[in-house]
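This part of the workshop introduces the protein records we will be handling. Backbone structure tokens are a discrete shorthand for how the chain folds in space. Once this layout is familiar, the rest of the handout is easier to follow. The record below serves as our worked example for the rest of this section.
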Amino acid sequence: MRQTVIAAGRSAIHGYALLTSPWRPYPDFLVIGAKRGGSTSFYYDLLRHSQIYPLFPRPEHLPKAAATKGVHYFDVNFARGSHWYRAHMPSTAVRQFAQRRTGGPVVVGEASPYYLFHPLAAERAARVVPDTKIIVVLRDPVQRAYSHWKERWRNKLESLSFADALAAEDERVGDAEARLLADPHFYSYAHEQLSYARQSEYGPALARWYDHFPRERILVLCSEEYFAEPDAVLGSAHGFLGLPREQVASGSVLNAARGSDLDAAGVAELAGRFAASNRRLTELTGRLFPWA
């Protein structure tokens, strides 16, 4: 009975949000990835800032354990249309109320880590929200790939060892990227969830975003630096979003994939594979990363 009531309530809230979507502004910022790069911890720490407002509906309205993190509109839900997307945003009236309460501007954003890798996400975002700001949180590409596999393994969604999964990746993913580009309704589970090494090749993926957004609207952060000095890195994001810096770091590491470390041989092999991409990343961003 309780689940039926909750489902009915969610349906009613969603219907209301769709009806009022014209009065729900697009987001001010997108956290576009990387997957398994620390974006979950980073996003929920961002929400602790007094002038960053959560997506609609707030968790206490559903109920649910935490605020919605990502909408995945520019990757897998684009066919649902802009009204569907805007239904996830707080209304103008709510934002104005929040601004009166805080005494300053209020910004809203979402974090969908597949945006970085999806071949159409940058172009779609540039077309729909050309004035939004883009935040990227990157992690050592070797450790990101391994964490990605551990997450799938932990959830019993991967049956192959890490080495075997890497060997099978090209066959599994196949021509998915070409099909995604050719058919906006096409979806590839392997492209999103089983592309362990490819999603760690940051250079080509990030280049698409630089092709579609001005450099001054893209902030590239490093998760190793974030976890070492969270308030400093969060402060740089606050400034990028035009907000005063606040000491809001929770110290939490969310959604970690526990397990043994990758062996030295595996680290060396992947580091060699990612060397060219890392060089491209440095060229794009003008900065060195700890793993380089």
Observations:
- The two ends are 55 Å apart (CA to CA).
- The beta strands are 29-31, 52-53, 107-111, 133-138, 218-222.
